[in-house]
Amino acid sequence: MRAWRVHELGDPKDALRLEEVEEPKPGPGEVVVEVEAAALNFFDILLCQGKYQERPEPPFTPGAEVAGTVAGAGEGVALAPGTRVLATPPLPDGGFAEKVVAPAEGGVFPVPENMPYEKAAAMHIVYQTAYMGLHRRAGLAEGETVLVHAGAGGVGSAAIQVARAAGARVISTSGGPEKVRVCEDLGAELSLDYREDDFVDAVKEATGGRGADVIFDPVGGDVFDRSRRCVAFEGASSSSASPPAGSPRPRKPRPRQKLLRRRPPLGPLQQGHAGGSGREPRGSRRALRLRGIDPLIYDTVPFENLPDALGLLGSRKTYGKLVTRPKG
C-alpha cells in the first residue's frame, strides 16, 4: 500500500515521500481502516518541520483524521468489516496512507450512512475543539453574542455552526472579501474583514457597547490581547491557538473585573493530533447531532498532490478544510 512518510524534517514539499509500505495488521483492541478520505491540518505541517508539540522519530506518517471502512479487527473488537467509521490513527503511523490502524476504544467512531467520507474526515478535531470551547469551557447560552476569530478556517467555521445551533448571535472576523462571504454564508450576523475593520469598535457598536459574551479565538497573540477589550462583563474568552513546540504558550485570559464575572477565566483550549484533545469524542459526537452542522470543505485534492496541498494550507489562502482521497 502507499503512504506518505517523513524521513528528514523540513517543509512538506521537501520532507514527504510517497512510498510503498507493508499493510498494517491489527493487534488486540485495534482496527484496520481502509482510508477513503483524510483531512489536512496545520499541525501536519509543523509535524513535518519538527516544530509540533509531538515529535515522532522519522520515518513517520502525518495525518490525524481519516474516514473509511473497517478492513480488519483485532482480538476483542466487535466492529464488522465494511463498517463506516472515522478514525484518529496515532503517530508514528498517521492517516496519510491507504490503510491505518487505530485503537477501537477512543480512536474509531461510527459515521452516519448519509455522510460523505470527505465531510466525516473533516469532522472530528475542529468540531471537538469548537464544541468543547463554546459549551464546556465557556458555557454558551442561547441568545448570547459570540465573537469567532478566523471564522472561515476549519475550527472557526465549525465554531460558527456550533454557536448558531445553540441559538447564539455570531460576529466573525476573517481576512479578505471571499472569507467574509464564507462566514456570512455560515450564519455570521456580522462578518468583519480584520484587514479593513477594527473588530473591537465593531463588536462594541454591534452590541450597544456591552461586548461579546463569548470570544472564540483560534489565533492567539495580539488578537487575543485586543479581544479582551471587547469581552462583556461576565463573559468568557476561549483560545484554541496551539503554538509550535518551544514557543510561549498562549497567556491565560484575565477577566476585566474579576468580581463582575460569574464565569471563571479560561486557560487555552488546545486542539491537535489524536494524542491531544482528539482522544475525547463527546464534543464531535454531540456536534454531529446539532442542526446546521455541515463541515466546510475547501477542496478535495489528489493523494499524489498532498505536499502541495499542505503548502497551500500553510499559505492561509484556503477556508474550511482540505481533504485528500487515497483512492482518487
List the helices and strands and how they pair.
Blueprint: E1 2-6, H1 12-15, E2 16-20, E3 30-39, H2 42-49, E4 65-73, E5 84-87, E6 99-103, H3 104-107, E7 108-110, H4 117-121, H5 124-137, E8 145-148, H6 154-165, E9 169-174, H7 177-186, E10 190-193, H8 199-206, E11 212-217, H9 222-227, E12 231-239, H10 282-288, E13 297-302, H11 306-314, E14 321-325
Parallel strand pairs: 8-9, 8-11, 9-10, 11-12, 13-14
Antiparallel strand pairs: 1-2, 3-4, 3-6, 3-14, 4-5, 5-7
Helix pairs in contact: 5-6, 5-10
Architecture overview:
This protein is an alpha/beta fold and 328 residues long. It has two domains: 2-123 and 295-325, Alpha-Beta Complex (Quinone Oxidoreductase, Chain A, domain 1); 125-260, NAD(P)-binding Rossmann-like Domain (Rossmann fold, 3-Layer(aba) Sandwich). Helix content is 27%, strand content 25%. It is globular. The model is unreliable at 243-268 and 270-280 (pLDDT under 50).
Task: Looking at this protein, list some descriptive labels.
328 residues; alpha/beta; Quinone Oxidoreductase, Chain A, domain 1; Rossmann fold; five-stranded parallel sheet; 11 helices
Q: In brief, what are we looking at here?
A:
Strand 9, helix 7 (177-186) and strand 10 form a beta-alpha-beta unit. This protein has helices at residues 12-15, 42-49, 104-107, 117-121, 124-137, 154-165, 177-186, 199-206, 222-227, 282-288, 306-314, and strands spanning 2-6, 16-20, 30-39, 65-73, 84-87, 99-103, 108-110, 145-148, 169-174, 190-193, 212-217, 231-239, 297-302, 321-325. It has 11 helices and 14 strands.
